[in-house]
Amino acid sequence: MSFEEEMEDLESAEDFLQYFELDYEPSVVHVNRLHILQRFHNYLQKASEGMPENEQAKRAIYSKLLERAYQDFVESDAQTEKVFKVFSMGEPQSAFVALGDIKV
Predict the structure, then answer these.
(1) Which of 50, 77, 78, 101 has the greatest number of CB atoms lying within 10 Å of its CB?
(2) pLDDT at site 48
């Protein structure tokens, strides 16, 4: 089975961490699993241009990027890291619509 095929079988943050044999604290992953996976995805996108063809080298890069994504949430939290757009949207916006502008 190729590296890409093995990656396709992984579903959860725990699956990825175990696959790459990274030590992790279950309580950190439990609270931040989607954030860790999204950050990992973001790091992979940034690194995609210089990604080697060699599976062993690619596996090492993936492992380092996953470790980095996990460590981001060991050292910080989801609200501070703002991985998802909803965290960086700012305050709700309001708009004024005059009664005369409403048409039935």
Answers:
(1) 78
(2) 87
